[in-house]
Amino acid sequence: MEPIRKDEIDAQECGSVTPKSKPCPRPKPGEAAGGCSFDGAQITLLPIMDAAHLVHGPIACAGNSWESRGTLTSGPSLSQYGFATDLNDTDIIFGGEKKLRDSINYIAERFAPPAIFVYATCVTALIGEDMDAVCKEAAERLAIPVIPVNSPGFVGSKNLGNRLAGEALLQYVIGTGEPEREIPLGVNLIGEYNIAGEMWDIEKLMNSAGITLMSRITGDARYKEITWAHRAKVNMVVCSRALLGLAKEMESRYNIPYFEGSFYGAKETTYSLRQMAFLMNDREMERRVDRLTEREESRLIQDLRPYRKLLKGKKAVLYTGGVKSWSIISALKELGVQVVGVGTNKSTEDDVRRIADRVGDDTEYIPEGGASRIIKTVRERKADIMIAGGRNMYVAMKEQIPFIDINQERHKAYAGYEGLLRLAKELTYSLANPIWKLAASPAPWDKEDPYDH
Amino acid sequence: MTINKRKKPTSVNPIKIGQSLGAVLAMQGCYRAMPIVHGSQGCSAFSKALLTRHFREPIAVQTSALQEMDVIFDANRNLEEALNTVLSKHRPDIIGIIGTELTDVAGVDYQSMLKSYKRERNMRGGLAFSVTLPDFRGSLESGFSSTVEAMIDEMIQQVGPRGSRNVNTRQITLLPGSFLTPGDVMELKEIISAFGFEVIAVPDISTSLSGHLLTGFSPLTRGGVPLDSMLQSLQSGLTIAIGGSMERPARRLHNALGTPYKVFQGAMGLKAADELLHFLHQISGESVPLRYCWQRENLLDSMLDAHFQFAGMSTLIALEPDHLYSVSQWLEELGVEQKALITSYETPVVVEMEREIWIGDLDDAEFLGKGADLWIGNSHGISGAERIDAAFMPAGFPVWNELGAYMSTSVGYRGAMEWTNKAGNLLMQREARHRESSIRHR
Fold first, then answer.
1. Quick check: B137 contacting A, CB < 8 Å?
2. What is the least distance, in Å, from the CA of A291 to any CA of chain B?
């Protein structure tokens, strides 16, 4: 595959908002990478920590995936339980609806969750299980929300799954509750999943600026808080294309203005906080935010100084495979790291435009092709480090390329001012590790000159 | 002896892993191979992510990327496209088509599609086979052994009638079960070859998933047993299968080629190691190498040192059937009470065990094993072990909370010693923690 330039990028609307001008591109058999819609739906909903998440299908969908995400909880952990109807041959033949009903009853009785999310899988969709009816009946009988999530793997990509999960929230959750006390000026964070605890860093920042976090959608969320998300004054979509539709719909239904932002990098963080205050139309809050961001930024400049010296001019290839690409580019730029290659396989036209605004003209776009294409770019552009998802981590290790994990399985939080400092540290530690030299030099007996005594 | 099941409609914290993951694992042990999972993207993506997390290695796998309309109209068109792409781009030596629950329920006939595909393309020199592995049956273990069986079937078909065989009595085919780590397979190969045999492991994850520094990225498997060695293994004078689940593939070789086989159900502990080495000693006529005599004494000495630690202790084991059997045999030698044994599905091996076996999940493990001192199972058990205040010993698949788990060795005398020490250390640390907290409470 030839590298393509930014003006050639094919627009992709997949996973983004209505109206869709083009259908989602079909994954190419034999070279498809990435998860399915079921995976996507779980990524969006599993961070609702106190709810039960029941997978209706044979075992693999739940059995091969539970406890695999880096989203953290500050309290309840029911969402970390793997629930599955675990259908067997006979269930497939005679239908699994009874088992589903019994399972919902069992979970409701034993764990008393505030809500149960029920996920369809390819097999249950194929044999025509009427999940919606079972959930509706159970919800009425048990008097708790039982929410069907119709996002079986074979309907499409992970992004689509995110979006379908957002639709389930709109249809069944948002607007069904009221906050315990009135919060006049609250912000919803949409699409922030508290990977490695990033939500907590953001929350801390917002608190210091005196901005109230209304509903977390969905990082470290409690079910309850999402029911009153419609009472927020502002929606922030945290670098997630797929949930933009949710924000748009909330704007038209509840008149909540939204903006898209990110917390990767100091500039983006400052912009996001300012934007919140601006949309609240609260002068006092704007002043508070200005004071906070100025203070944080100047402190950060001090803290970053030693790292910037080490990172200046270093080249990185970025392959997050999603919407995060443009926001991470800003963060890297602030550290003096040059992005010489960037993955655009799952980015929309809009994302690509944002990427283009942030990178130099000679940056290579990697539209698809997976690991071998990334490696090729790293080699050709003489990149010093690769920044990608866990799936590609060991590919980089095999090629002895320094690596930073940026996707949902990661263990380090990079959001906010603190996060940028952490990213700078991680980059320097990774580049400075002695292993790169050790692994690159041969065993003493394999060194060339045979007469060297 | 008795197989039990707790009555509940839902699987809570499953121990079961989809069969197709076992197939992908088996194929990682073959050189330049590519498993193609015939299902939706997630069917392969979850397997890939989980295997990567456990082995900390890139995993070769592809998918036919079925979407709803493909399933309704023609799923095999996707498969054909996937085959075309994989063949033309990567030229693998071995291709395995792994049928999933999705293709099974939709009634997709990929077996005959593959046959005609091979005929039309005049495919020679490689190995292409299919295996049906819906996840509403079996678990990782059955997926693994069925795939090895399908691979052997295909090899037998390819080389033709048994007359052309040139038996090499100094060569042994090793069929290692799914529960063995790359470190285990390496140890077994070493033990067998120490008695003067050539040994070919099918599959051989010890050279692919043990960690290597080959550069030059390939989407195919790196390392593992090459196809020509696999074909050569058909000339072996004997098959050694480790784990009851590998008896079927061994029997295939016996039925088709007349190769005698020996199954070692257990692989762990003194008795199991004794059996293996005694057997090798008898069939080879070679004396047992000195280092194994030493290792045997080392093991016995470490068991003597550790037995204080195990006195009065009880364990809970939640593992795949063959692994459960092996670990249980080893624990028996330590004199530890086996409070609860939980496994993923019923196999002849667990049915014949003289213990009470539960088919269930990790929630059952928590319930039945309440009060146990040591929890042995995969990393999903961490929080359950915490809840019942048991020391946690990671074993089986997946293990993500420990570096180098894939190299930990449990077979042979050395393996038994490693595990005995590890378990003893965990109990010792737990005891120290308890002591500390009881002082604080005073």
1. yes
2. 43
Distance from CA of B344 to the nearest CA of A (A): 11
User: Would you call B425 an interface residue with chain A, using a CB distance cutoff of 8 Å?
Assistant: no
* CATH architecture for segment(s) B19-158: 3-Layer(aba) Sandwich (3.40)
A187: its two tokens: 């912000």
Q: What residues in chain A have per-residue pLDDT under 50?
A: 1-22
Domain B162-289 has CATH 3.40.50.1980: yes
What is B291-441's CATH superfamily?
Nitrogenase molybdenum iron protein domain (3.40.50.1980)
Cis before A176? omega within 30: no
Residues of B in contact with A57 (CB under 8 A): 101
pLDDT (0 to 100) of residue A1: 36
Amino acid type, A364: E
Q: Does B287 touch chain A (CB under 8 A)?
A: no
pLDDT at B175: 98
What are A44's two structure tokens?
């969006």
Architecture of domain A312-411: 3-Layer(aba) Sandwich (3.40)
Q: Residue type at B307?
A: H
Q: Could you tell me which chain B residue has the CA closest to the CA of A436?
A: B213
Regions in chain B scoring below 70 on pLDDT: 1, 161-164, 440-442
Q: Do domains B19-158 and B162-289 have the same CATH topology?
A: yes
So what's the pLDDT on residue A373? 86
All structural domains of chain B with their residue ranges? 19-158, 162-289, 291-441
Question: What local confidence, expressed as pLDDT, does residue A17 receive?
Answer: 41
Contact between chains at B47 and A127 (C-beta distance less than 8 A):
no
* DSSP3 helix / strand / coil % (chain A, rounded to 5): 50, 15, 35
Kindly state the tokens that stand for A186. Answer: 């609250």
Shortest distance, CA B247 to any CA of chain A (angstroms):
25
Q: Report angle CA B368, B370, B375 to the nearest 5 degrees.
A: 90
* CB-based contact A123 B102, cutoff 8 Å: yes
Give Cα A312 distance to the centre of its chain: 28
Name the CATH architecture for the domain at A34-172: 3-Layer(aba) Sandwich (3.40)
- Give the closest of A36, A63, A103 to B16, CB-based: A63
Window B:15-54, CB contacts with A under 8 Å: 16-21, 36, 39-43, 45-50, 52-53
